[in-house]
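Researcher: Going back to the complex we discussed earlier. I've cleaned up the inputs and rechecked each line, so this should be the final set. Can you rerun the prediction on the complete assembly and write out the structure?
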Amino acid sequence: MRILEKAPAKINLSLDVLHKRPDGFHEVEMVMTTIDLADRIELTDLGPRGGISITSHNRFVPDDHRNLAYQAAQLLKERFGIKRGVSIGITKVIPVAAGLAGGSSDAAAALRGLNRLWNLGLSLDELAVIGAEIGSDVSFCVYGGTALATGRGEKIRHIEAPPHCWVILAKPAAGVSTADVYRGLKLDHVRHPHTGRMIEAIQEKSYEGICENLGNVLESVTLKMQPEVAVIKDQMKRFGADAVLMSGSGPTVFGLVQYESKVQRIYNGLRGFCDQVFAVRMLGDRCELD
Ligand SMILES: C[C@](O)(CO)[C@H](O)COP(=O)(O)OP(=O)(O)OC[C@H]1O[C@@H](n2ccc(N)nc2=O)[C@H](O)[C@@H]1O
Ligand SMILES: Nc1ncnc2c1ncn2[C@@H]1O[C@H](COP(=O)(O)OP(=O)(O)OP(=O)(O)O)[C@@H](O)[C@H]1O
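Model: Rerun complete. Updated structure for the full complex:
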């Protein structure tokens, strides 16, 4: 039997860090939404007593226990005493180490797909709790859609979809380590975004309100490690994006664009000096994972 799952990327429309916790993680308040840029996960049953095998044609994606989709399969096998093997094929589209939760979304898609393949009968809420053991972004990715994520990112409150718009993404050549970015954060020097206002703007379907309230406290940390982020932000604004921000721990920069007529010009302009550029729609609805 073969199961296919879509694993969409996320962007953080707003990302605030409240404080560092005794367990080393940071307490966050993030508004996240899925976009139409997705990896494909193909799960094939390998029969009794088999192991977990990962295939991907991207040299930056680990093919062993370091892969988050592998960890998802291992966790379910152990927890539910599954004795069957599985092959996990990953068609990578989401840039790696980019702040777009590519690995987390692959793990979430593996959880959803294996739940079907092995007839585990788990709800999305149960899968999201299991996902939190793999990484902070996995719970959100289990559901997709749009949500406020709190705690270390694993507490999810669903909110409605933002109004449809275009998202232009541009990723500088090198990736960044999320742990390094959190480590570099000095909380007494940041301007906190207004999470409440972002949620209100989404609920009111106010595109202007969303643009006005974009904010990410991690941006200034990554900017120091990768000055190219500032250059890309500048170019995106100059080519005509309505608002721009770095996603997650970066270094990918996204620009919001309301009218399709502007998209091609911004995309072409950025392609001049950045290899990985994408123009996609905001998804925002949970049902759009299918
Ligand atoms: C930057 C974001 O992607 C925004 O959505 C997330 O906050 C990070 O999510 P993630 O990549 O799934 O993070 P994890 O794999 O759980 O953690 C990677 C590392 O980031 C740091 N980390 C992560 C989440 C958090 N709330 N506080 C942290 O300090 C920790 O050092 C941790 O060891
Ligand atoms: N399925 C996977 N796809 C991509 N990278 C993976 C995967 N599994 C593990 N990794 C490892 O995770 C690291 C971070 O990759 P990922 O693309 O998930 O980062 P990210 O988009 O910055 O994540 P986040 O936004 O959740 O912080 C990579 O350098 C890679 O070694």
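Model: Worth noting: The mean pLDDT is 95.
Researcher: Good, that matches what I expected from the previous run.
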